[in-house]
Amino acid sequence: MSYWLFKSEPSTWSWQDQVTKGDAGEEWDGVRNYQARNFMRQMAVGDRGFFYHSQKEKAVVGTVEVIAAAHPDSSTDDPRWECVDIKAVQAAKTPVTLEQIKQEPALSEMALVKSARLSVQPVTEAEWRLVCEMAGLDP
Length: 139
Prior knowledge:
Helix content is 26%, strand content 35%. By secondary structure, the chain is of the alpha+beta class. The longest helix is centred in the last third of the chain and has 11 residues, at 125-135.
């Protein structure tokens, strides 16, 4: 299993929007960055990810599961763009802010710290376990 982080502006697509979709989940569409797209191409059904609210909140607010491998993004006719489908798994008991992540030495190399603008990014297993612990989530 691999681990990922999915960033979203809550005013566009929030954790609550994701939760409302239930087991049917939702496409993680609209990504127009080649590196983020390539990360989605690497994802497998069953991989887990953090759902991260960007903008003002800047926090991990829950976990998601990849429920469909990379496929054409339905929000465009451009064949270059692909996406995965994800479903909500668990809400964070305590959201973990970017500031808290930056203050944790063991997370200093996390892509969220190093490549903050990337909307889809990998998370190592050690990072996954530590952020889950900080958030009160089951790893």
